[in-house]
Structures are given as C-alpha cells and as structure tokens.
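In line with agreed milestones, work has continued on tokenised descriptions of protein folds. One protein thus recorded appears below exactly as we store it:

>
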Amino acid sequence: MAGFRALAEQVRNPRLVAAQRRTALRKCLERFAPYGHRATWHHLCTRVGIATHDRDPDPERLVAALAELEEARTLWLAYEEEFAARRRREKYHGIRQPSAIDDWHRRTWGGCDIVPCESPQRHPAARLAVVLRSMIAAMESGRRRHDCPVCGGTRFAWLPEPAGCPTTGPACRVCGVLAPASVLSSEALTAAGPARGDGAFAAA
C-alpha cells in the first residue's frame, strides 16, 4: 500500500491523467485528513475551486490542494514529534497520569479527525494549517475558554451522533468544528445543551 509521499508524487506526476491524479489525492486523505475524509475533501475542493464530484479536474488545482494538505501534515508531524518527546520526559520524571491533551492526542494520533466537523459541508474556511495551529495552541494552553479555539465564535450546540459524524460534542455554530470539551468553560458547555458521550469531546 502506497504511503502519503508516494501518493503525493502521483498527484504531481504530469504523465498521469487527471482522473488518476485525483484518485491519488483522495487516497492521501486516507493517511491524513484533519476534518475527516469527506469534510477534508470538501474543504480542499472548495479552497481550490473544483467540484467534489469532478472526475477530470484541472491538475494544477489538484496540486494546489495537495500543497495545502502537505502544509498541514508537516505541521502535525512536527507536533507529534514534540508531543512524543514531552511524554518521554514526563515518564522519565514519573509523570504518568494522562492529561486532557494526552487524551485528545491519543484520539487524533495519525492525523485523521483531528478537528471533527459538524458535517462534510460545514467546516472552517481558513487553511488547514491555520486551523490546526489554533487547535494545538488551545489544547496546549490548558486554559478553559468560552469561545471556539478555531474561529472565536461563542455559540455552541451539543451535536448528537448522527450517521457519518465521527463523534459527538459541542459544535461551534460559526465554523462547524466540534471543540474538545476540555478546552471549553463550564458556562460554554452548559449553554451548548445536554452532553452525551464521553472522552475528549464530552463534558467533564
């Protein structure tokens, strides 16, 4: 099975027809998809101006979508390396109790559903790397907040677990991301409505 880098080279390969390059980009999302596969695909298509079901898209637009995905992946891989190094240091010093960020990171290891979205069509408009950087900073701060760590919106609604949604949690009414409940204040969680589920995306 081809890895992300090999698939990325296929997307860039001018000897391949557009349909093959599109397929390679879709397969890249099986290795790294911050919003989940469908939402990340919709985001990239929207950003570069191609239709999600276009089987013969402009190759230059596919390469542009790949560039945004690679930028976000590079950021995430660097974060994972830093996280792993920190955990090694903590274990060396006898700190073994996982924190909220440890639980969040465990659920997002590998780069899929890092920032789950309300639906495949509802997600932040900013570049993926910008969104990831905002979420990482919010988690690492350890500070509970009343606003969305991605867009700053202050209205949330607790999203039940419908078909096709990777999890349940407080969804931002502005950008559509499901914010980890561990970064939201008790007031924000209460205003979001009744909590369901457990773990990083459930109310503590």
Notes: The CA atoms of residues 146 and 188 lie 5 Å apart. The radius of gyration is 18 Å. The chain has seven helices and two strands. The first helix runs from residue 4 to 12.
